[in-house]
Sequence to fold (255 residues):
Amino acid sequence: MKKVSILLLLIVLAFSCREKSNTQEVRINPAPKPNTTFYKLNQEVFVHALEGLSLRKTPDSKAEKIGIAPYGAILTIVAMPLPEHEYVAEKIGDFELKGHWVKVRNEEKQEAYVFDGYLTHFPILAEESEEDMADPEWFYQTLSKFKGEREISAPNEAKGIVEGYKQAYADGGEFEYILYNGGVTQFLRVPATTLSLQQALVSLRSFYFSNAKKMKAEWDAKKQVVRILDEDSPTEWLEFGQKGNQVVVGFYSGD
Fold:
């Protein structure tokens, strides 16, 4: 009986080892990180860093610096970055200004790497707005056409509103202007697919605070917005936030 039991055990072990030897190890490779850049190969992009962007020999912040791409410069994408290599250039509270090192070519045909967090797909706002148009309204019409006429708001003495209006855009965006007894408030509410929160921040703070000597960025945890202001002019500031798929930029000016 013992011999039979031992024989059966050996048979079971033999089949078990054979099954294991025939089993192939299955490895599941993680899915590649999707490319989240706004640009494509050979696309022209624009520099929105007031002090310009360093042109570097290799994709690293410590790499040899071979030049500067000035504010407003046009660059062409030569090679796409690796999406998994993402860097944080600025951290303002919960907000992180992220990007990659991308290979570009400047107008002098020089190729180098720049940090793409300060690049956008639209040029800097160099011209002054038309006489009857606020700067944010003027700026956004370069990205999306107006839709219909302005919607004029009636004065509201209880809220201190003297006048106001709204202007819709073809992409679903909206600009709102409100004149109070004590100042002006303007809102730009636009789809994040047209203008991301990061692009709004880097482009509009450069335009509005180009002459600021004490520009300050702070995080408002209660409102979940980034606030940009000039400490020498505390009655004027910008706020950048996002609600769902909508980027909201507030422009505040008091007396």
